[in-house]
Amino acid sequence: MPPPANDRTNTPALKTRAARSTSHRSSNRPPRPKEANMAGLFGGAASSAANTNPTQGDLSKDVAVADPPEDSISNIAFSPQSEHLAVASWDKKVRIYEIDQNGNSQGKALFDFEGPVLNCAWSKDGSKVFGASADKTAKMLDIQSGSTQQVAQHDQPISCCETIVAGGNQMLVTGGWDKMVKYWDLRSPTPAGQVEAKERIYTMDVRNDMLVVGTAERWIHVVNVNQPGTFYRTLQSPLKWQSRVVSIFSPEPNGFAIGSIEGRCAIQYVEDKDQSGNFSFKCHRQTPPNDRNTSNVFAVNAISFHPQHGTFSTAGSDGTFHF
């Protein structure tokens, strides 16, 4: 499974030599992606091979959430309709916080699982919260009534959950280590449909009619949710190491970003006519002051696009976020 967000030790390549000879690369690896020069939002230098210092902003006005989870946080999700934040954690709980205008938080609800919670998501109307767990189930909390019910089941841990609207009905999409993508009508205990991915599912994102699924062995599946039983496109990530996260472009969902455990991010368009716009760049890397030929490499755990401007941020296992 992908390493937890705060776990550096699970990353298989913590250090890489920046000056490696190309003769040491395996001949069956994909070609080296183009590098992009990403300017720092706060006046810092770009994350590149020449300068790998983290780009950090002023955190003095940040407010910590009250009564946080007791173990690693696997995912956070804001309600699309209200100032509520859902937090999934390895302590087997999903917590819901209410955030006021000053950033102060108050716990409003929580629901439990039998295993670590690996993901969470909101319904489009903000009335329900979903959690996906290593106990092979997904559950739903009704915010108004406070009732909880199981809404999905897999043969292996469920790593991802998202909500879509299909045929006018709100549905839940789950992905698991059993390689299955399943679609659930919340009125039925059995899946309305399913499709098998090439490998274990590690990450998933949905926007409008596009669903993107990232699996082990760097496979990426693209789904048109109007035809959920088939994959619209299947490709392998241009990055050399395990995919950690996928995130669909916004506001125009014509492609997606991929983050890997090797401190690298790729921008990938879906259609063939747009492939010239693909590129990748390094991020979440640190160069020790006494060894300029070595980079400490950290996983890219999260990517989030601005809903209007197309800019995006990344968060990594080095404890920093970049814009």
Automatic annotation (TrEMBL):
It comes from Hortaea werneckii (Black yeast). It comes from the Eukaryota. WD repeats lie at residues 169-194. Gene3D superfamilies: YVTN repeat-like/Quinoprotein amine dehydrogenase (2.130.10.10). Keywords: Repeat, WD repeat. Residues 1-67 are annotated as: Disordered. This is Anaphase-promoting complex subunit 4 WD40 domain-containing protein. PANTHER family: MRNA EXPORT FACTOR AND BUB3. SMART domains: WD40. The keyword Ion transport does not apply.
